[in-house]
Structure formats: structure tokens, C-alpha cells
Amino acid sequence: MNGKLRQQEVIKAFENFLSTPLETILQRHLNTQIPSALSLFYDVAANVPAYKAFLAEREINPATIQTLEEFQKLPAIAKQNYILRYPLADLCRNGQLQECDMIAASSGSSGKPTFWPRFFTDELQIATRFEQIFHDSFYTDTRRTLAVICFTLGTWVGGMFTTNCCRYLASKGYPITVITPGNNKEEILRVVQELGSGFEQVVLLGYPPFLKDVIDTGIARGMEWQQYQIKLVMAGEVFSEEWRSLVGERVGSRNPCYDFASLYGTADAGVLGNETPLSICIRRFLAENPDAARALFGESRLPTLVQYDPLTRFFEVQDGGLLFSGDNGIPLVRYDILDTGGIISYDAMLQFLAEWGFDAVAALQNESHNSEFNTPNSERAKRPATANSTQHSPRGIHQLPFVYVFGRSNFTVSYFGANIYPENVTVGLEQPVIQEWVTGKFVLQVKEDSDKNRFLSVVVELAVGVEGSEDQRLAIASSILSQLLRLNSEFANYVPAEYQTPQVTLAPMGDFEYFPIGVKHRYTRQ
After folding, report:
1. Can you say whether residue 135 is alpha, beta or left, with left for phi > 0 and alpha for psi between -120 and 50 degrees?
2. What does the longest C-alpha to C-alpha distance in the chain come to?
3. What is the dihedral sign for C-alpha 444, 447, 449, 450?
4. Using CA atoms, how far apart are residues 228 and 193, in angstroms rounded to an integer?
5. Span 371-399, mean pLDDT?
6. Sign of CA dihedral 235, 506, 290, 256
7. Beta bridge partners of 235
8. H/E element, 10
9. What is the dihedral of CA 344, 347, 349, 352, to 10 degrees?
10. Among candidates 156, 236, 225, which has minimal Cα distance to 189?
């Protein structure tokens, strides 16, 4: 594409982004008959050299794929059979890497970087996910907002991508000011304390355990987070609703459905879906009703639950794993990201909840009312409503489908035939009192004693300044056991009572063997 055409493409895309109300974007899928994934397939099959070769090797003629059913029989692509097999340029349209203007890197489980190019227009469609959060959850159209980027900066996808998307929202008219301390904890604390009082709310965007560390460090130094009206945008890890409640309490949150939002994002394709006030409301109900959660998800753990726009990211489920199709610098067709999970339509979700006696929309109306009126009338009156403002129905309710994500299936351990998930243990460490002793990190393993009897081992990292007593160790073991019995029916029914109590070991913060500093933590060992 020559420079003039590229310039026209950019101008048109940016004008569409700036002028199209959020509500209009989120309703488009309701009136679309042909899945966008089919159109994407034809485009990629014609214009991406690597995908042309991929289909040719399998003797697939793109012209024979006429229906969604035929599309769903196409072989899935993944890193091993596609991304790593072809030159980077061949994965891009027309074999032209230079048609992208940014490259991010992901290390993956192997530690070897994979490069993911993208163009400005790719970021605009992802910016809509951020607009959902800032408009529907944080009411940013009527609140002067400081967005503090706490994701790692550099080649990793989170920091730069998030920064760009937040700035696009400012261009659209949202009163957002962005600052980028990255994952420098001291700089984040300085930024919030010196700038935060000049805004009506402060949004921290980063990975959940890091944001909690920032908040806890601030509290230890006497910071009063409540005065800054803190909101959190997170990505990268599944966390429990107990964690959300705990962190919310520490920053003074009164409306967890409207003060938090988690992204389901990847370096491969940006943000695939995002938590909404409705999805959080539903997840909090399911956290309190494990039987309902098991009936819905089929497992004894609570996944990340988000909503997604099927026009920009088309999800499918194959053999318990998630596939998605979406446009990007490297367009992806039926891409297997190796996450386990599933999809639920909007109507099916509300019907399921009704059968369990829960009206999520009605429950959210109370939360919405409280959130809207957290800002004083005198402050709200100073600013005119934008085109995206809604005055009647609660924000955060859109007829978008849901996708739930457990993450990689190899992060579980098997004990007496029961699958035990890190998420079950996490809840045990987030109970009152115990949460003050620990960082939240642990290593879950199944070991054998000298007589070859198996036992469940949990090595727990102590918080700074905590030495760890025998009473604390026993209390932690008891808390983990009670949550395993409550949340995991396989554990409760498969594991003999005499083998159920985990053997807890307390380790100091930064322990070299289990919790080395600067290394991505793994919660299980085989």
C-alpha cells in the first residue's frame, strides 16, 4: 500500500472511531447476519502468504468454504504449526512487515520471544474495549481522570498498547490524562500522591498482584487511598472475588462492579474481551454459590468471565479449548491460544441465572445508582454529557456474549484423582487475618513421604516483616482446607479425610527456591 492510501485509511479509521458512539459499536453485532470471521478468512486466504501456504499444504481451496459450518471445520492454527513455521513478514498481509508500525514481544512459556506486529488501526478497535471500561464502569465521560499505566513498558505488549488506547479515548473527548511510570513502584506512589488530588478519580492499570503490592506499600507508608477514588484495570491473571473485595476494601471501593475491570488480553491479538459491570455482578454471585458455578462452568474453580464483541473477536470452542479469529497486524483465523474455557450467549446466561433465582440486571441497577452518585452533583453539573452518556438504564448492560477463561490446563495438580486448582488455594489465603500474613504467592505440589504416601504440599510466601509461627502455619492450613472442601467437590469426595489437610510450609519473601525475585511466578509444580 502506498503512503497516500495508507494516510487515507488512517484518517477514515480515526474519524470513525472519534465520531461513532460506544452504544452504536456494541449493537452492530445484533444486526449482522454473516459472521465477520468468514469475511476475515477470505481476506487472509487471499492476501497473507503464510496462510495461503498453510491451506495449500492441506489441499484446502478457500472458494469451497461457503458457510459457517464449513469454516468451523478448517484446521486451527497455533504458534507451533503456524506462527513459528513461517517468516514474520509472510504472516502479514501481502508479506509486507512494513505495513505495520509497531512490534510487541511475548516471551511465552518457552522464554523465546515471539514478535507481534500491528498497525495504528488495529489499536483503534482495541481502544473500544478500554472505552467500554472507562465509560460504562468508571463514568469517565463526566469525571476528570488520571490514568496511571503500571504495566511494564518496553517491548512487552501491556504498557505501550494500554498507553496508546487511553490517549485515543482522550482524543475522543474523555477527560483522561495519562502518565506512564510503568512497573516502578516508587514512581507510581509519587505520581498518585503528587497528582491524584487534582483529579476526580485515579485509575491504576496493571497486573493484579503488582497493583496489590503497590496498594499495600502505600498503606504501610500511611497513604489514604480513599481520597483518590481509585479504580483498577487489570490483565494477565485469574483472581478470586475475595481478592477483589480485599483490594477494594483497602482502596475504599464501595461498588466493586463499577470500580474494577479485568481484560482478557494477549500479545497475539490485543484485548479479546473485558469485564463489564454485568459480568462482575454475575461472577460475584457465582463466587458465593459454588454449586451454580460448577453447573455453569463444569469445574470446581471460578474462571475469568468477560464479555466480547463477536464482530471483532469471533470465539469458538473446540475440545474444551478456545479458538478465536480476529484482525491484527498478523490476522488470525481459528487461532488456538491454548486457553481452556467456553462461551455463553447473553440470553443463555440470564436464563441460567434466573433458574438459580438471580436477576443480574436488577442487582446491577442498585450498584449503578450508587456509582453514578458517588460524584457530587455540583461536580457533575460542571461538565456536559457526551454523546455516549446514558441517563436512564444502568451502564454496563450490553447484549454481548460471554467467554469464560480458565487459562492453561497444565496449571492444575491431580491428587487422588481430583483436579486441584491454584484458584482454590488462593481463596484460602485471602480470608480475614490470614491475608495480613502472606503475599498471596504459593507453590502447590503433590509429594510423597518416606513411605510413598502422597500428600498435598503448599509452600506459602510470608509478607514482609512476618516471621511465621506454628500457630499461623496451622491457621493457614485450616483455611486452605476449608476452602478446598467448599469450592472443590472432587477434592471433598475423592480425597480420604486423613489426606485432605495440606502440609503448609512458610517461606520468607523472595525465597530463592520458591519465590525468586524478578522471575514470573508459577503457582504449581508437577
Report:
1. alpha
2. 75
3. negative
4. 9
5. 53
6. negative
7. 263
8. helix 3-19
9. -130
10. 225
Residue extents of the structural domains in the chain: 3-117, 118-407, 419-507
Identify the band that residue 291 occupies on the pLDDT scale cut at 50, 70 and 90.
very high
**Within a 13 Å sphere around the CA of 56, how many CA atoms are in the beta-carbon half?**
8
**What's the confidence (pLDDT) of residue 243?**
86
CB of 139 closer than 8 Å to CB of 100: no
What does the pLDDT read at residue 276?
Answer: 97
Using alpha carbons, select from 518, 486, 491, 513 the residue that is nearest to residue 502.
Answer: 491
Residue 30 has a CB neighbour count (10 Å cut-off) of: 11
Residue 16 has a CB neighbour count (10 Å cut-off) of 12
Cell digits of residue 188:
507510581
Question: Do the beta carbons of residue 258 and residue 371 sit within 8 Å?
Answer: yes
Highest mean pLDDT among 247-261, 355-369, 511-525: 247-261
Give the chain's radius of gyration (CA, Å).
24
Q: Higher-confidence residue: 316 or 414?
A: 316
Average of pLDDT values for 120-144?
Answer: 96
In angstroms, the CA 258 to CA 137 distance is: 5
Grid cell, residue 295, equals: 453447573
The type of residue at 8 is Q
Question: Which has the minimum average pLDDT: 57-61, 406-410, 411-415?
Answer: 406-410
Are the C-beta atoms of 169 and 135 separated by less than 8 Å?
no
Is 50 exceeded by the pLDDT of residue 391? Answer: no
Query: Is the pLDDT confidence value at 82 over 90?
Result: yes
Residue range 105-123: average pLDDT? Answer: 77
Neighbours of 476 (CB within 10 A): 26
Mean pLDDT of all residues belonging to the chain: 89
Instruction: Identify the CA nearest to 502 among candidates 420, 434, 441, 438.
Output: 420
C-alpha cell at 167: 490517549
List C-alpha distances in Å: 408 to 34, 120, 237, 238, 416.
31, 30, 11, 11, 21
Output the pLDDT for position 284. Answer: 97
The amino acid sitting at 191 is: V
Q: Is the pLDDT of residue 91 over 70?
A: yes
More confident: 210 or 47: 47
- Residue indicated by cell numbers 498453510: 54
Question: Which class does domain 118-407 fall in?
Answer: alpha beta
**The cell 513478514 sits on which residue?**
89
Q: Which residues contact 136 (CB under 8 A, 6 or more apart)?
A: 22, 276, 277, 395, 396, 398
Nearest to 439 by CA among 212, 184, 250: 212
Amino acid at 317: V
DSSP element (H, E) containing 272: strand 270-274
Calpha distance 182→163 (Å, rounded): 10
Residues 6+ positions from 237 with CB-CB distance below 8 Å: 207, 208, 209
Q: What is the CATH number of domain 419-507?
A: 3.30.300.30
Burial-class residue 169 by CB neighbours within 10 Å (0-12, 13-18, 19+).
Answer: buried
Backbone angles phi, psi at 32, to 5 degrees: -105, 120
